[in-house]
Amino acid sequence: MEKVYKTMNSAGISSLVVGICVTVIGCVTGAFLITTGARLLSRKKEILF
Alpha carbon of 8 to those of 22, 31, 33: distances in Å? Predict the structure, then answer.
């Protein structure tokens, strides 16, 4: 029975770690996209089509 609890514990820890990594990567990507969009909007007058 103890083997089941160890397996459940390791699955919970790995799920928590993956969730934290996904959240951090999402926040960094969002900040990057916001800054890139702001830079494009500020240079909108320089773009010629």
Answer: 21, 35, 37
Query: Residues 14-44, buried b or exposed e (16+ Cβ, 10 A)?
Result: eeeeeeeeeeeeeeeeeeeeeeeeeeeeeee
- Whole-model pTM? 0.72
Q: Mind listing the pLDDT tens digit for each residue in 1-49?
A: 789 999 999 999 999 999 999 999 999 999 999 999 999 999 988 877 7
Backbone torsion region of residue 11, taken as left when φ is above 0, otherwise alpha when ψ lies between -120 and 50, otherwise beta: alpha
Q: Which tokens is 21 given?
A: 């990594």
